[in-house]
Amino acid sequence: MPSATLTIAGTLLLPHGARGVRLGDACGHVITEGDRIRVVDPARRAPAADLGDESCLIVPAFTDCHLHLPQFDVIGVDGLELLDWLERAVFPAEMKWADVDFARAMATRVADELLSFGTTAVAAYATSHFASTQAAIDALADKGLSGHVGQSLMDRHGPSSLLVPAPAALSQAASLRARGRVTPAVTPRFAVACSDALLAGCGTLAKRSGWLVQTHLAETEREMETMRRLHPERSYAEVYDRAGLLGPRTILGHGIHLGDEDRALLAARGAAIAHCPTANRFLDAGEMDLARHAAKGVATCLGSDVGAGPDRSMVRVARAMIDAAKQVARGRPERHGDFPRASEAWWRITEGNARAIGLPDRGALSPGRDADLLVVRPTKPWRDSPDPLSTLLYAWDDRWIEAVVSQGVVRHDAR
Ligand SMILES: [Zn+2]
């Protein structure tokens, strides 16, 4: 790892309390050394900065807990219910990944796109193609991203060219290799598309490898009906639990249509739900009840869910989380004011999301943490706002991102 240093000046977005952030009072600075943050000084201006100045804001880089790499080119295919949308938009896009050169080039392009939006860590799905999934792991790692990429396993209810029988799928997934800061993830697509044998094999692989588990849970009503038909004897969450797939390293996309028994099960296992409010709105899947999940002890994090989610920006996903929580509370006086504030929204897309996918060194401007951060130059006079964190969240413009640093290296430079 290079021991090069970077001195970065600006107002710092700092950790505050258990689930929040605060802004430094003055222009401060951060010094990185190699791939780590060495100095964090929120009050003193640096004598000579490599990046930033007193007009800038320094923010930890964003983490996206749920997205699909092969779906970046089919964002916005509208008017279809989830299962139809998969068939008409998503599966044809994923079939293109049968060509490993195409997959590698696309994953590289998507990595650049993620960096340009300030995201340097992900929990991502590839496709059911083994070599292309490995190419995606390598491409993201080479671009300086961190996190998890999984071979999206399915052995039923999909086009034959994307189905891989359970024994082959499991042995392929087990032989994926980590590279740099990117690790394979155990990724059964969702229980509708996975036989019991495939799910059970994924549970065994998760136990043996210690890799992150990611799958989808309870996104739409029609999916729920299909699950009730396939598994009349147990709930959707129980299907995953029976396969040994629920644990503190499990990320479940969506979790909208759940009862309190399923919430209790998820809470007991420590599995987290990746809330994807922009995707839920786009597919008209329903509103996830964040407050109810929290009240029942279910951990949550945030994902863009590209391509169902149209927004690559985690700031817009965080805003949509607040909008969705307000929508759920509407017309219920006992819920008045029960929605996350801007401080929590910023925390979630930085430190909260990083912790959720097992990256404890990410997401905060603190000495010793990973040197993954953004230099932002807002064009609004946000400092005079009565609520600067909220103004920054809602006035956010991706064109404000001047530089993206990952592992102490400038990976995106818009100056
Ligand atoms: Zn998804």
Verbal overview:
The protein has 415 residues and is of the alpha/beta class. It folds into two domains: 5-61 and 363-413, Urease, subunit C, domain 1 (Roll), CATH 2.30.40; 62-356, Metal-dependent hydrolases (TIM Barrel, Alpha-Beta Barrel). 35% of the residues lie in helices and 22% in strands. The chain is built from 13 helices and 16 strands. Strands 1, 2, 3, 4, 5, 14, 15 and 16 form an eight-stranded mixed beta sheet that branches. Strands 6-7-8-9 form a four-stranded parallel beta sheet. A hairpin with a 2-residue loop joins strand 15 and strand 16. The chain is globular, with a radius of gyration of 21 Å. 55% of the residues are buried. Bound molecules: zinc ion.
